[in-house]
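Hello again, I could really use a second opinion on something today. For a while now I've been wondering how a particular protein folds. Please have a think about how the structure follows from the sequence. Here's the protein in full, and shout if anything looks odd to you:

***
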Amino acid sequence: MKRDDSGAALPLVLILVTVIAVVTGALLSFADTSVRTTVNLRDQAASAYTADGALQAAINQIRTSTFTGAAGQHCFGASDTLNLPDSGAGAAAVSCTADPAKVLIQCPSLSVCNRPGSAILTLGTGGEDGLNIQQPTGSSFKVHGVVYSNSNINVVNGSLDTNTAVYARGACSGTIRSTPAASCGYGGSSLGADPGYAPALTSVPPRQNLPACTKPGSLVTFQPGYYDDAAGLSAMMSSSSKCKDSTFWFTPGAYYFDFHNSDAARPPSLPGGDDVWTVDNGFLVAGTPVDGSGRIIAKPAVPANIPGACDNPIDDAKAVGVQFVFGGDSRLAVKAGQVEICGTYSADHPPVAVYGLTSGAETPVTATLTPGGTPSGTFTSAPAGSLSTVDGNLATWTNNGNGNQSATLTAAGYAPPAAIPAGSLLKSAKIRVVHGNDNGTNQDNLSVQLTPSGGTAGSPLPVPAYSDKVLHTDLVDVTDALAQRVYDGTFTGAQLSYTAAVKHKGTEQVDALQLELVYTPPALRAESGCTQLPYTTSAACALVTSVNNSGNRFYVQGTTYAPKAVLDITLNNATEPIFRFGVIARSLWVKETGSVTFAGAVIEVPDDSPGFVFGVYLSAYVCPGAGTCAPGGTPAARARVAYVDGDPANPVAGARQVSVLSWSGSR
């Protein structure tokens, strides 16, 4: 049979058509997917660009503001959200949250730095322990920062542990763990030099009276100024005080403590005793008060929650605290009370909270007060100024008969040449009288009387009488009559009266009638309370002493600077570092009891590393096709940004540096 192959091409055609159709469909599907992907990628890119632009706008708005992340502030003026209009890819919004982590260390140079170079620096070289650590065997005394002693280091028990270097110009004893290993017998560089921080005071501030203390568990408020009564402070802060269990709030500012309870020249109102202020009850808060979350409040709580009761300059670049300045032999002892002292933040020097003066001394003032105007009384020939000097210009009274006769000479206006400041101690006050009788006898009855301006007349005080016919100079002591007025700053002048009672003929003569004062006004005095070398705990003369007591708490949120003084601290209930921002002293003695459970650094100085004053977290949201946008859902981009101000306490809009710490977009 003859075969016919005329239909054989049809299957091939069908196969070819099918293949072409499949390939074409696949190509069309791929092209559609590609187009859709391109559109999606374009939309994503537009959204990413919009989000990036929104973040940049937010960063710049904060850069040109004075926002610092402080409590109550908002990133963008009145709000923490920045709304941006549609720029072609939709509207955007940026939310802002302040970064709680802050690095407040500013060290543009070695000489301009707001932290000490060492956590512990002892300056004494007089043969005493520079650093003495006593603790239970097996304990670790931890320090964060450099330890430097200009003499020796004596770790009696346990170990001294620091995260960095330890230096001692003398020997080291005991266990010391540091990186690198402790360098004892160190003789190089100037690391151990006194930084010479200046006190917050350049002169003595006005003297303050102690505030009223009448009710237990109350708030007792102190104002900055000069305080000289350690006994009064101690009585107020004792368990037998009328205001026991109170919070004693020292409002921000500079305080000068120069106690004179041991001074022999103290006035009647200043009780005797030693010059040690003892906190044995209550809660002492010094600085701007804060609540448990660190927010500034109007006044501290009663009882105060110590530590954490005042604004810490480590955490807040706007912290305004106190500086407790101690002079002379004044000392502070913390027993059963609780104490927290917070310094003031600065961008160029450490926040010194406790300061022991290194220089200054009292300078006695001698003043000879003379009368003003014309004397009055029964004496004659006494013109104005005749009693001011010994010049032969006499005031006279002549008795022409026998029997009891008397006459009085009165002069006023004995004013000091300058106002005597409150707190001045009167060393002596004497009436100088130059007098005589041309027919004298030692049986004459002579006296002087002092009447302070605005006060009552004192009792007549006897003046010696003489048998010869020449003038004599006598000094009559009136110190007790004027001591309190001089101390109170209320002595503005006086009136003096001279009375002569005689029984014979003759002429009574007065050449001068003066009032001589010697007093010491308050002065910034170098610390002098612990001159014994070497120091031992039995000396009990340390500037600051903290004793082993179950109720004891003592914290300094700032630098302690007392290069001429000894600090003797016993740790019992520490819950965080007790000395923040470092300690500089002549000698430091630390004792840890077995009840100490705090495992961190007891003394620290913040790390000296490039940091930022404050930071923010920014999240950008994009709303395509919308006129407005609000934060919600997953942000299109995020950033963490830090800002650095030249002076964190006074930021300048537009002058702050910006550092982007992280930047990411959602995918």
